[in-house]
Amino acid sequence: MRRQQRFQNFAFFALTVASVSGCFQTPYSTTAAIRLPEGAGGAAVLTSAVEASGRVSGAFDPNASYAQALAASSGAIAGTAVVFPPGALSIAADIYVEHGSDLSSSSALADLGLTMSNAIAAAGAAAIIRPSTDAALKTPMSLSLPLPSGVALELRLTSSLAASALPGLGDPSERVAILAKVWDPVAKELRTVLFPRTEIEVENGLATFDTMYFGAFQTVVMENPVTEKVEAKASEPITNNTGIAVVATTGIVPQESIATTETLRPLTFASFTLSFSSAARTATAQARLSESVATTSCTLSARDKDRGTVVWSSSNGPNSASADQSISAPVTPGITGLIEASMSCVANDGRSAKSDWQNLTRLCAAGKYGPDCVACAAGTVWDTNTLSCVNAGLGYYANGDGVRRTCNAKPENSVFT
């Protein structure tokens, strides 16, 4: 394996991912192997604090001559572990491992432009790995993430049983990828990245890979294999599962600021409405937040309801302080299907709010119209008034009584409307 030269000894942490429960409905329990550099003689496990939320933190020693590890053993990200080789950071800092907001249902794939060519078939929980202050890795950290629920089991079963969970999609191990949002300290930019299967080692129900960046990471199984790394500028900050921005689009948020934000009451949507203009192909969202706040940005995302993949997003901001926030933007041409949308806003104080997904519209392919996406026969055209195909040249007129009538030619003293 690629890491055998660098990782020879093994230290075992009891990282229970899930338990087996009748009829193979959940993955096997797994004991994750945290691989340590040769000669390290074991890793110092940095667990100075384990919070009720499952967030784990530990103090990294930049002068240590041994590897240092941090692992989450409870909550949604149980089984997540990170190993820092000696000298990975040049400064002392607390390292945090915590549950992040779901990247697979965010604007991440839209950032990468992969929405129409590849969708996410399954996703694990997003895990955030971050320092307590602005810091950059000098050497890569090794990160292990549990595979999506059910996938770990599939890899242990016969091909006939494995195919039952993700029918028609072949061997899931070949379609494993890592979806991430990372802070690039050189470019000073928050990036969305999709790590390909060739950079990931899949073993014992875990996906393990090396990275030079702090951020949020999530194991995914794609519809099609990912053969090369894809990355682009991220449109939204990294937030944890409580809606607090921990890595902004401008950099890593200090833990002191995060702790202050966590004392504030959660930001929520009091109301949320959607509308869609077929003529302009424009989506509009209007929301009332639970309180008046200035926002760094608001984002409107649309996803294919059948595939569950975000296919488009648009952001605005900064926006002045108000409880009422709105965004309107044209939907990218070529997107088709039954579309639903969601809106999210990030306040200047680091809190964020996200609406539920609501039906927006059905977008038709070129030459098809209406809620059922019908094609008009030769000699007919789609009429937006009757929402039907009518003979070409038909018009509508009114005789002053407000009643709309169909005609083949404009009658005398009538006006087309």
Please give a structural write-up.
- The protein has 417 residues and is mainly beta.
- The chain folds into 3 domains: 7-261, Chondroitinase Ac, Chain A, domain 3, CATH 2.60.220; 269-363, Immunoglobulin-like; 368-416, no CATH class.
- It has helices at residues 108-112, 151-154, 159-165, 255-261; strands at residues 7-13, 32-37, 44-45, 49-50, 56-60, 68-71, 81-84, 93-99, 120-123, 127-131, 141-146, 176-184, 189-195, 201-203, 206-211, 215-222, 230-233, 238-239, 245-248, 251-252, 269-277, 282-304, 309-316, 319-330, 337-347, 352-354, 358-363, 368-369, 374-375, 380-383, 388-391, 395-398, 405-407, 415-416.
- The strands form 8 sheets. Strands 4, 5, 8, 9, 10, 12, 13, 16 and 17 form a 9-stranded antiparallel sheet that branches.
- β30 and β31 (388-391) form a beta hairpin.
- The longest helix has 7 residues, at 159-165.
- The N and C termini lie far apart (72 Å).
Secondary structure blueprint with pairings:
Elements: E1 7-13, E2 32-37, E3 44-45, E4 49-50, E5 56-60, E6 68-71, E7 81-84, E8 93-99, H1 108-112, E9 120-123, E10 127-131, E11 141-146, H2 151-154, H3 159-165, E12 176-184, E13 189-195, E14 201-203, E15 206-211, E16 215-222, E17 230-233, E18 238-239, E19 245-248, E20 251-252, H4 255-261, E21 269-277, E22 282-304, E23 309-316, E24 319-330, E25 337-347, E26 352-354, E27 358-363, E28 368-369, E29 374-375, E30 380-383, E31 388-391, E32 395-398, E33 405-407, E34 415-416
Parallel strand pairs: 3-6
Antiparallel strand pairs: 1-2, 4-5, 5-8, 6-7, 7-11, 8-10, 9-16, 10-16, 11-15, 12-13, 12-16, 13-17, 14-15, 18-19, 19-20, 21-22, 22-23, 22-24, 22-25, 25-26, 25-27, 28-29, 30-31, 32-33, 32-34
